[in-house]
Amino acid sequence: MFVVATAGHVDHGKSTLVRALTGMEPDRWAEERRRGMTIDLGFAWTTLPSGGTVAFVDVPGHERFVPNMLAGVGPVPAALIVVAADEGWMPQSAEHLAALDALGVAYGLLAVTRADLADPGPATARARAEIAATSLGAVPAVAVSGLTGAGLPQLRAALDRLAAQLPAPVLDDPVRLWVDRSFTVRGSGTVVTGTLGAGRLRVGDELELAGADAPVRVRGLHSLGEARPEAAAVARVAVNLRGTPRDRLGRGDALLTPGRFHHTDLVDVRLAGDPAADLPATLTLHVGSAAVPVRVRPLGPDTVRLRLARPLPLLVGDRALLRDPGRHHVSGGVRVLDVAPPPLGRRGAAAARAQVLTELDGRPDLAGELRRRRLIRAGALIRMGVPVYAEPVAGDWLADPAHWRWLGERLTEEVARHAREHPLEPGMPVDALRQRLDLPDRVLVEALVRPPLRIHAGRVGAASANALPEPVARAVQRVRAEYGDRPFRAPEADRLVDLGLGPREIGAAVRAGALLRLADNVVLLPDALDDAVRVLAGLPQPFTLSAARQALDTTRRVAVPLLELLDRRGATRRLPDDARIVVT
Ligand SMILES: Nc1nc2c(ncn2[C@@H]2O[C@H](COP(=O)(O)OP(=O)(O)O)[C@@H](O)[C@H]2O)c(=O)[nH]1
Ligand SMILES: [Mg+2]
Q1: CA–centroid distance, residue 21 to ligand 1 (Å)
Q2: Whose CA is closest to atom 25 on ligand 1?
Q3: Whose CA is nearest to atom 9 of ligand 1?
């Protein structure tokens, strides 16, 4: 299906043309028919000569109803511009064209109506010239009469050619259905309609509705007046929602693929064209079918920050329009550059931000986003409209490569500093490092740890035993020199004090594997265990404590805990009579 919105001044024959092409009545309201004037959006469709379907969103031309017109054209990428041959170019011809231009609509067609009343030549020439200066460029023109039907076959053929030019919709994109109508159908409940520009909808789908705490479920789908199990973009759709009161949603709301959109009330945008120097401080932002008051804060020559009166599901690259409702004036188009911009607290922050914005063009740029944000979750980027093709550094975190290298260096420095300041601790706690490096998640700390550093028991430290703090290493060296040839003689308590080996130093040495602790203040060199087993194995089995003590040339102070340790490790076994054997 191909969806096209009408555009043009009131009474130029838009609705008549849609009626003539489709046989359907676009003016749905009794009041519209009584007054002969379109007030709100109308919908009609027909089959084209190619067999394809065209659906029209017929908009009101009267200046009072421009917001309704904008809600209709916002989500539609093609326009049928209507100008009456007998009246020519008029104010809302210009305002509607300015709106299409602001929204960047690039596909269109000119129909010069009421060609039975006047020569269509002058109106055609003027309109084509006006249109050529906009995002629509040079468009085909067809002179028609809604009254006599002249030109309608040519217009149908031209619509077919236009449909063939339109880019194919992206069917795997998430759904963002801007609601243009909502009503209640007796027995079915709430129904909303909109133009599905991308993605698919199926009966049973869950969708997100801004402001609702629970997802809403698609109970039924209609397109072109028929119930369907599924609708794929591009399509006009009517969605019946289960359990959603009608007053919960209306024009300007959006039904969304859950978790795929970031609702934002702060955006940085670029103004299209030649921005007015005197942009008012408050304007209305029109995007999709929504119209939201905004406060405008100028940043650079063509960039501003908009504070929205309510959050909208906007993406980087979205086109929108700013309008001054008081002056009935389209102030211009904007392109969304950033949907999660940083606060501007510090002095000079606005100028710095303006500088950053000069580099942005609204095209999603993963490398640039990472450079600016340094660390961000993949999901957050996707919700901004930035496709993620880079590998995460940890969990679902993405990092700017240069920033990640810098963090790795910082981590090494912090661990070394911590080791200097706390020489006896076995490394720096992961959480202290997380805070020190100001990281939002401990998986990031873990991913930054590289050999020779390692994580052990929640701390980051050197993997090797020579991580032993300098004074402790020296003390252990002295123990080795003094006791190396009497390996089972443990230094006495006062000798340990002389060597500077208090409980904390001993703990550090034991964790590093440099000393073996048998009991409080009873330490041996670590190879003593294997040596002891060798000596004891040379004794007649079983052997007594006293025999062991003599063979090891040591005291009870060492022999008792040493044998108990060997028992626990299964190297020796204690028999009922307290003698032992070496287990082989
Ligand atoms: N003679 C003639 N009258 C037309 C033609 N198209 C529309 N009209 C009349 O112009 C008036 C406005 O038409 P309408 O379709 O409501 O204009 P809209 O406001 O652009 O939708 C109506 O009275 C129509 O009957 C046409 O091609 N020829
Ligand atoms: Mg009309």
Answers
A1: 13
A2: 16
A3: 13
Under the banding of pLDDT at 50, 70 and 90, the label for residue 374 is: very high
Spell out the residues 6+ positions from residue 141 whose beta carbon is closer than 8 angstroms to its own. Answer: 109, 110, 111, 112, 124, 127, 128
- Nearest Cα to Cα of residue 236 among 107, 75, 15: 75
26-57: burial string, b at 16+ Cβ within 10 Å, e else: bbbeeebeeeebbbbbbbbbbebeeeebbbbb
Ligand positioned closest to the Cα atom of 115: 1
With a CB cutoff of 8 Å and minimum separation 6, the contacts of 540 are none
What average pLDDT is seen over the chain?
89
Give the three-state DSSP class for 66.
helix
pLDDT, residue 336, reads: 96
Structure confidence at residue 477 as a pLDDT band (50, 70, 90)? confident
Of 77-81, 161-165, 277-281, 317-321, the one with minimum mean pLDDT is 277-281
Element of type H or E holding 532: helix 528-537
> Cβ neighbours of residue 490 under 8 Å, at least 6 residues apart?
483, 518, 522, 523, 524, 554, 557, 558
pLDDT tier, 30 (very low <50, low <70, confident <90, very high otherwise): confident
CA of 34 to the centre of ligand 1 (A): 14
Q: Residue 122, preceding bond cis, omega within 30 degrees?
A: no
Atom of ligand 1 nearest to the CA of 144: 27
The pLDDT, as a whole number, for residue 127 is 96
Of the CA atoms within 13 Å of residue 290, those in its CB half-sphere come to 25
Q: What pLDDT, in 10s, does the model give residues 1-10?
A: 899 999 999 9
Q: State the average pLDDT over residues 473-493.
A: 86
Q: Quick one: CA torsion of 78, 84, 87, 91, rounded to 10 degrees?
A: -20
Ligand with the closest atom to the CA of 10: 1
114 lines ligand 1 (CB under 6 A): yes
Burial of 501 (0-12, 13-18, 19+ CB in 10 A): buried
pLDDT top residue among 260 and 485:
260
Which residue out of 6, 16, 59 has the highest number of ligand 1 atoms within 8 Å of its CB and is therefore the one to mutate? Answer: 16
Asked if residue 147 has its Cβ within 6 Å of ligand 1, the reply is yes
Give the distance (Å) from ligand 2 centre to CA of residue 223.
23
Percent above pLDDT 70 for the chain: 98
Q: What is the pLDDT of residue 465?
A: 43
Asked whether 437 lines ligand 1 (CB < 6 A), one says: no
pLDDT in tens, 410-426: 988 888 888 888 777 77
Instruction: Using the mean position of ligand 2's atoms as its centre, give its distance from the Cα of residue 24 in Å.
Output: 13
- Distance separating the N- and C-terminal Cα atoms of the chain: 84
Ligand that comes closest to the CA of residue 9: 1
The whole-number average pLDDT for the span 233-247 is 85
Closest by Cα among 179, 188, 183 to 207: 179
Taking the CA of residue 117 as reference, the ligand 1 atom at the shortest distance is 1
Pick the residue whose CA is nearest to atom 6 on ligand 1: 13
Q: 271 alpha carbon to ligand 2 midpoint, in Å?
A: 31
In order of 23, 46, 237, 242, 365, the CA distances from 225 in angstroms are: 14, 12, 9, 19, 40
Q: Is the pTM of this model over 0.90?
A: no
* Ligand 1 lined by 12 (C-beta under 6 Å): yes
